[in-house]
Design brief:
Length: about 400
Amino acid sequence: MSVAERDLAREFAPVFDAVGAEAVARERERRHPFAEIDQLRDSGFTRVTLPERYGGRGADATELFELLAELARRDSNLAQLFRSHFSFVDRSVHAKPSERRDRHLRLVADGAIHGNATFEKGPARVGSFATAVSRDAEGLRLDGTKFYSTGTLYADVVSVAAEHDGGVVGALVRTDAPGVVRIDDWNGFGQRLTGSGTTVFDGVRVAETDLTPRGGEPAGHGGAFVQLVLLAVVAGIGRAVVDDAVRFVRARTRTYSHASAATAREDPLVQETVGELSGRSFAADAALSVAATALARSSAAILAGADEGERQARARAADLAVARAQQVILPAVLDNATALFEVGGASALAEDLGLDRHWRNARTVASHNPLRYKTRIVGDHLLNDTPVVSWWSNGEA
């Protein structure tokens, strides 16, 4: 079967169904999905974007983001925690050929999962880090504390953003190395099982060959990529809202004295509500598809060795498409997660259904790179030709 003919989302559907089967209970019990992550690894999902020569499937952006949305449809935590993993693979695939690049791709080929250790809660200013790589009598050491370490609780390796010799580097370390402490202290009301808590690095030994300078790279779509992972998660939540609405209404036997039909599934007002849920989810899916296509075009330009001007144009188009997609996907799904409760009465509030998780999870993901800032950036770009911001960071002003 050719790449054009295959349907990876359909192929992975059985494993996605399996890992999502207990998603509601897992969240309620705060039961970490270690076994489910192993299932996804064993199925080849964590290697799906690797080139075939490394044992992957060579999935492009349109395939990957559809897969992430379908995984989020079953469990949005699982889809988000792979954000840095697939970003790491994407950076490596598009990097210039080198021994380091090959080593990174082999890590993933061997089953390693990559985590995140970029953001901090401390007093460092925007664009800088308190975490640092320094040198002592024994060599290089890494010290610092990261928060929002999404996925690192489950990861085998992690690239740590740190100051070093007047610049910023990514220090690749194993999560089981001496001095690495992972703490499950993420206390947000949504996405509770993404492992987005604290990671401490205390005198962790780092090899010179495992430091990758950051900044100054050729134009790329890395910023758009990591943001679109989040939007794929939200789009998947939108699909789950429709699924749960249909499931709830079909099973409902009680009705109201002032209802428009004898059963909920025959009630035109309920039918209209479900239709609206489906339409908004469709709009979110369409925006995701357009943005993923823009990313695929950027990837194709890099892999084809296009000149810097073409690469930059493709990357900027991806940045703009993702910023616009954010304006469609987030409001659509957040509205859906509230309107869902219009299909039923108080029974829809039962904790064992977990229908509230859709709004909590979507709202949590939507808090990354706030929508209002992105909306203004798009307007500034259209009115004043101001470049769309590609990368974001936070810290003290």
